[in-house]
Specification:
Helix content is about 40%, strand content about 20%. Helix 6 crosses helix 7 and helix 6 packs across helix 8. The chain is an alpha/beta fold.
């Protein structure tokens, strides 16, 4: 599947010229507007001046690490989505990147098509790419214009938070969403993973009760909803 942009502005932050050139060329051909810097201070200045729709951020930078850059962006408020792209692929680094405000974490070496898919999905779920008016998963339909979910012709009585969670899962249908990702994108506050479990349980009861299950638990990882 090809994933193309709609002119969104992406800021690449990496001090490896080869990686910067590869990313700039690939993303430009995919329809994005790309700018690039090679240090943390330059990244902070570029975000302030250019207001990019997304930041693709390396962790190992010459002046400050990418985690520090991400923290500083989060402290400013209204930060663009951040996708970490780095050779530091330990579980500890991944968890750190996501906990401090990163929206996705990809390790080098990476596959270009996977990166494009992740960029597209992140822009879409952050509201910086055109949304589909109708999302579908099997016989479940979510009409974004009406803020309504219907399964097998029956309207589902969802609270605003349940609707937001369902939309988040459907936008990312087929992908496993971690509890941390759900906390960040549904609440944008750290209320604890128990809150996520309770919300998913309520949503599952409304969506799946008496029907073929669409919302699945992937033990140790998170939740996903079936694709169409």
């Amino acid at each position: 599947m090809q994933h193309s942009g709609d002119g969104q502005h992406l800021l690449v932050v990496d001090d490896e010229p080869g990686i910067t050139e590869l990313l700039s060329t690939t993303l430009d051909l995919a329809g994005y507007h790309v700018s690039a810097v090679s240090s943390g201070q330059a990244a902070l200045a570029a975000v302030e001046a250019e207001r990019p729709d997304m930041v693709i951020l390396d962790v190992m930078l010459p002046d400050m690490d990418g985690f520090t850059v991400c923290r500083k962006l989060a402290e400013r408020g209204h930060a663009p989505p951040v996708l970490f792209l780095t050779a530091r692929g330990s579980v500890e680094d991944t968890v750190t990147g996501l906990r401090i405000g990163g929206d996705d974490y990809v390790t080098k070496p990476f596959h270009v098509l996977e990166l494009l898919a992740r960029v597209h999905a992140l822009l879409r779920r952050s509201g910086r790419a055109p949304d589909e008016q109708v999302l579908r998963s099997a016989d479940l339909v979510l009409d974004e214009a009406k803020f309504q979910a219907v399964r097998s012709g029956d309207a589902l009585d969802l609270t605003p938070t349940e609707y937001k969670l369902l939309r988040y899962l459907m936008v990312n249908a087929g992908q496993v969403m971690t509890k941390e990702q759900i906390l960040q994108h549904v609440w944008q506050h750290d209320f604890g993973e128990g809150v996520v479990e309770k919300l998913v349980s309520r949503l599952r009861h409304k969506v799946d009760a008496g029907r073929r299950p669409l919302i699945h638990t992937v033990r140790g990882f998170g939740y996903r909803i079936a694709e169409s």
